[in-house]
Specification:
Blueprint: E1 7-30, E2 36-55, E3 58-73, E4 78-93, E5 96-97, E6 107-124, E7 128-151
Antiparallel strand pairs: 1-5, 1-7, 2-3, 3-4, 6-7
Length: 161
């Protein structure tokens, strides 16, 4: 009869120790050279970003994108595209934080769920163009943590003749 002996081991591993997601809506302004008659199109390109941990429960995403607005002027007789680079800084709270992490959490992964997108584009005060933007991020913080595992040694079932 073989006796099974169970033991526990602590394993130190890297794991997701904090995560959060946030939908951000902002209003940006573009000032064209000509007085706009109407908006013909608006699109967002060249989105770049980076994330860094700001506090135990907060990640900051900094980035930029270009707003391109196609508009008409001179009573809709001519058109032009105006481009404006926008810089932003979004604070994303971590909704789940592992209290058992062994070290300060430094490695941050940020992923775009929704690329910056134009929700609405309108002419304000006859000259300025207001652009409503929406973007969404998910962030994960990687750190070292301990995992307890149960270890059951292999039993030797070899028989001798």
């Amino acid at each position: 009869m073989t006796m099974h002996h169970e033991d526990h081991r602590e394993i130190i591993t890297k794991a997701v120790c904090g995560s959060g997601t946030k939908l951000i809506q902002s209003v940006d302004e573009v000032i064209p050279k000509q007085q706009p008659s109407s908006i013909l199109g608006c699109w967002i390109i060249n989105h770049e970003y980076r994330a860094k941990k700001q506090a135990v429960d907060l990640v900051q995403v900094e980035g930029s994108y270009d707003i391109n607005v196609w508009y008409s002027f001179q009573e809709n007789s001519k058109t032009e595209v105006v481009t404006e680079q926008i810089k932003y800084s979004d604070d994303i709270p971590l909704t789940r934080v592992d209290e058992n992490s062994l070290q300060d959490l430094n490695e941050v992964i940020a992923k775009v769920i929704k690329q910056p997108n134009c929700l609405q584009c309108s002419i304000e005060d006859g000259q300025r163009i207001q652009v409503e933007i929406e973007r969404e991020f998910v962030v994960e913080v990687i750190g070292e943590t301990k995992v307890n595992v149960r270890v059951t040694p292999m039993s030797s079932n070899t028989s001798t003749s």
